[in-house]
Specification:
It contains 22 helices and five strands. The protein is mostly helical and about 525 residues long. Helix 8 (about 240-255) packs parallel to helix 11 and helix 19 (about 465-475) crosses helix 22 (about 500-515).
Length: about 525
């Protein structure tokens, strides 16, 4: 071990950088260098973070710390309940610098602009050089994306995805062309379940990771210290080590990937996992390398174990979407966070924090979110996100909720997906059109509507689905803007089909819903309080 006052490099490891092969650790000398990690309340309170998300980060961090110690590396680690903890990253870094007197600071680039700026400012105050290294976890560097974006008036994921697949030789045939003769099998990835539901498709529940002693201690700490925060920990079973993450990956590849493609957009009552992987949090905390994930999916296809549409659909989420949204984030930050192209100004309904809602689809999606810190992409985009879009919630409020409640939420991936794709707050940077739909979409893709008192085919009247009412109101309110978008032309034209009396009734009902704090019926305390 190094002496207390002989530190050459203090290597900063953030809670979403738990990669033993991280660029920040290149050249690490256990005799001269030290690792710095800090648990601070600031990272759980700048948004009202849910208990599952806090627990995932803290449990994974502590496991990483112990693994590094086993390698005989010095780790300066501040636990959140330790005496003297300043509860900010900048404050804890200052304490470590005072104790260790390092010559320099080294880190892999952060996953959030706010955190990167805070650490840079702290290093400047301490008058220490800060070396920021590329994040090798991703297929593409930030410079790679900047090169892709240069000279393009409009960025679209599909073209980026093709470029990255070619560069890395993923799912290509012997001639270097896309396997199966096409780049994208999205049209095959929109299936819904029959009346028999997912069990008729031989759904097998994913393996769960029982908490070990370290994780159990974290769960107890979170329950006590963050008692007022949303969410539950009773069902906590997320992978928090690389070994557990690889086990979850193997389980998915073997038992669910084959049906993932067809049913990746489908939803079903009381079935939170369906054919999804449950590894996004592990990847975003850097416990699992995306190259390993993509290779496993491609290998399963080439071995004849899964259909091409499933392998391609899954790989597209990682090699395409995941890489693309990171590029968008860093290309447009920090101004991206303030964008609000639709001028939305409503507050987030209180039921997003409680799950207590008359609409069954929202009750199901929010309920499982609070119970597990998880919902799959269609539940996020076309249920919770869609309702916020149609209601007219300020996109920054929707963003803060998504960042707070999901265990896989790191701002580089969450912000463009929420503010851009889900809420169209960026005016088309992320998506070519708003993802606006009536309740009939939810009815087609799930059995949620069967357990709901609202009729998704109706836009007016007491039985009308709020999604359908608000959809038409959304088109009416933004008709002039949406008419300029070719992909929205047909939807906008449909406004003309509305009877004047229905149009008036729709707008009145939509305003009533907003007056009720976003709920279809008036009740007390429906607006989310200031956090």
């Amino acid at each position: 071990m190094i002496a207390a006052k002989s530190v050459r490099s203090l290597v900063l490891v953030l809670g979403d950088q738990l990669d033993a092969e991280s660029s920040a650790l290149d050249g690490f000398d256990p005799h001269r260098d030290a690792i710095w990690m800090a648990e601070v309340a600031e990272e759980s309170e700048h948004v009202w973070t849910s208990k599952p998300r806090i627990a995932v980060f803290l449990a994974a961090m502590r496991h990483f710390r112990d693994a590094q110690k086993k390698l005989q590396r010095r780790v300066n680690y501040a636990e959140i309940d330790a005496p003297g903890n300043t509860q900010t990253l900048a404050g804890e870094l200052a304490r470590a610098v005072a104790e260790l007197s390092p010559e320099r600071l080294i880190m892999t680039e952060a996953g959030e602009w706010r955190v990167q700026a805070a650490i840079a400012a702290a290093a400047k105050r301490e008058k220490l050089p800060l070396e920021v290294r590329d994040d090798r976890h991703f297929f593409q560097t930030r410079a790679d994306f900047a090169a892709h974006a240069e000279g393009r008036k409009m960025l679209r994921m599909e073209f980026f995805y093709r470029e990255v697949r070619r560069k890395h030789g993923v799912l290509l045939d012997k001639k270097g062309e896309p396997e199966g003769g096409q780049w994208n099998f999205d049209h095959d990835n929109r299936g819904s379940f029959s009346k028999g539901g997912p069990k008729a498709e031989k759904l097998r529940a994913p393996i769960m990771t029982p908490p070990d002693a370290i994780t159990r201690a974290v769960l107890a700490l979170v329950e006590k210290r963050f008692a007022s925060h949303p969410g539950e920990l009773k069902a906590f079973a997320w992978p928090v080590t690389p070994q557990e993450a690889r086990g979850a990956l193997r389980d998915f590849i073997e038992h669910r990937l084959s049906s993932f493609g067809k049913f990746e957009d489908a939803m079903w009552m009381d079935e939170p996992w369906l054919f999804h992987s449950r590894i996004s949090a592990a990847m975003n905390l850097k416990l699992l390398n995306p190259r390993e994930v993509v290779a496993a999916a491609e290998q399963a296809y080439r071995a004849g174990k899964v259909p091409l549409a499933s392998a391609e659909g899954f790989i597209r989420q990682i090699l395409g979407w995941r890489e693309y949204v990171r590029g968008i984030y860093w290309h447009h930050m920090p101004r991206y966070l303030g964008l609000n192209a639709l001028g939305a100004k409503e507050k987030l309904p209180e039921f997003y924090w409680t799950g207590k809602c008359e609409m069954n689809c929202l009750r199901q999606s929010i309920g499982q979110t609070l119970a597990h810190g998880y919902a799959h992409h269609i539940q996020r985009l076309m249920v919770t996100g869609l309702y916020g879009l149609l209601l007219g919630v300020e996109p920054q409020n929707v963003h803060a909720w998504y960042l707070a409640v999901y265990v896989d939420a790191v701002e580089w991936v969450e912000l463009p997906t929420t503010l851009g794709m889900s809420q169209y707050g960026d005016g088309g940077i992320m998506a070519s059109k708003p993802y606006a739909a009536t309740g009939k979409y939810i009815d087609r893709m799930s059995n949620y509507c069967a357990g709901c008192r609202f009729d998704p085919t109706k836009s007016v009247g007491e039985e009308a689905c709020p999604f359908t009412t608000l959809y038409w109101d959304f088109l009416i309110r933004h008709e002039a803007l949406l008419a300029k978008n070719q992909r929205m032309a047909l939807q906008v034209k449909n406004i003309a089909r509305l009877k004047p009396t229905d149009r008036t009734a729709i707008q009145a009902r939509a305003q009533e819903i907003r007056g009720n704090g976003g709920a279809p019926a008036a009740a007390g305390g429906l607006l989310a309080p200031e956090r």
